[in-house]
Design a protein that fits this description.
Layout (H helix, E strand, L loop, with lengths): L1 H19 L3 H9 L5 H35 L15 H45 L3 H6 L2 H43 L3 H46 L1 H7 L2 H54 L4 H42 L11
Helix pairs in contact: 2-10, 3-4, 3-6, 3-10, 4-6, 4-10, 6-10, 7-9, 7-10, 9-10
């Protein structure tokens, strides 16, 4: 009995460990299906777009600092021969960067959608070939509904949901990284406090991803009986009224609705749990960035434009962190479709040599 209990505990710990892991193999399968040329285009367009966005904000900070210094130092110039501040160099650079950012946003959106379309076509074609050439024992042991779900629900997830989630995840991640990089550039002392904040954020997202995935699956599993019961009730209204079972079917519908609402309520509560903790981390980032900026401004003569740039990015870190973790949890759920299709792709074909 002791050996059995220890084996159960080991199995439970291994299951929990697997639940906390990211499906990196499914992610690699999805990205490898994009091709050699499309994947570097997707990565480079994302990096260049966010680099240009940071450059736009940095240009605005320099422009603001130059305008303020021009107005606050009139005694250092001869007022009889002084001229107005020339905004044309800054406006030209700012306009060029904005146009470049618009073009890169368009290229990034096209690359993401093109990647999703190519991956879906490749996986669907490979799955169709495997299923057609599968042996008969495969159809005898695999339910038909499971095969249809791979072609319908999972392919729909790969086609529509994963590209949008991938774009949101990459955007929020790069925005968060660029914000922390700008704050660290403005005030290098911020790097000291970045390590404990990163550790806290890691453990928070680790617990949230497991709970969010389970709650999302619970929400989906409680929604299916509700929709099925509603459609069956609508189709069988004549029989229900003939046997006077309206109250029974109404009560059953309310029970299914309550079950689905409870799952949705817990999923919403989990999102609020994450948002509150990300707000605390964001508040710590703002506090540390403000203290280090003021200290650097007093002792190291840090310009006001860079201080404003660092604090602006610090105020947005909590929002970026929140969306990064939520998109990461959504991506983990949606990669399950790639994992299930990849499992069917390992099916061995029928050993058929044809007629001689």
């Amino acid at each position: 009995e002791e050996v059995t209990e220890s084996d159960d505990e080991d199995n439970l710990s291994s299951v929990l460990h697997q639940r906390a892991k990211m499906p990196w193999r499914a992610c690699g399968k999805y990205l490898s299906a994009a091709g050699i040329l499309l994947l570097p285009l997707l990565v480079l367009s994302q990096l260049l777009k966010h680099t240009v966005m940071v450059a736009i904000d940095y240009c605005l900070a320099l422009w603001t600092e130059a305008t303020i210094s021009n107005k606050l130092e009139p005694e250092m110039r001869n007022c009889s021969t002084c001229t107005d501040f020339d905004h044309s160099p800054y406006s030209k650079v700012f306009s060029i960067l904005c146009c470049l950012g618009i073009v890169l946003c368009l290229v990034t959106s096209i690359a993401v959608e093109w990647t999703g379309l190519k991956v879906t076509k490749k996986l669907h074609s490979s799955l169709l070939n495997k299923i057609i050439l599968a042996p008969m024992r495969f159809f005898e042991t695999t339910p038909l509904g499971s095969i249809l779900n791979r072609f319908s629900a999972d392919c729909n997830t790969i086609d529509q949901h994963i590209p949008a989630t991938l774009e949101c995840l990459s955007r929020s991640t790069l925005l968060c990284v660029s914000a922390l990089a700008v704050i660290s550039y403005v005030t290098p002392m911020f790097l000291i406090a970045l390590v404990p904040l990163a550790i806290m954020c890691y453990f928070i997202q680790k617990y949230f991803r497991v709970a969010s995935r389970d709650l999302q699956q619970l929400d989906d599993s409680t929604q299916l009986p509700l929709l099925s019961h509603f459609s069956e009730t609508v189709e069988g209204l004549t029989t229900i009224r003939a046997f006077r079972y309206e109250a029974k079917f109404r009560q059953k519908l309310l029970e299914y609705t309550d079950s689905n609402n409870i799952a949705s309520l817990f999923l919403t509560a989990a999102n609020r749990w994450l948002e509150v903790r990300m707000e605390y981390i964001g508040a710590c980032v703002v506090l540390i960035a403000a203290v280090t900026s003021i200290t650097s401004c007093l002792y190291n003569k840090l310009t006001s434009g860079l201080v404003g740039l660092g604090l602006t990015y610090a105020l947005m870190v909590s929002n970026y962190l929140n969306w990064m973790v939520r998109n990461l949890a959504d991506m983990e759920i949606q990669l399950g479709a790639v994992k299930r299709i990849n499992g069917l792709l390992k099916t061995e074909a029928e050993n058929y040599e044809g007629l001689l």
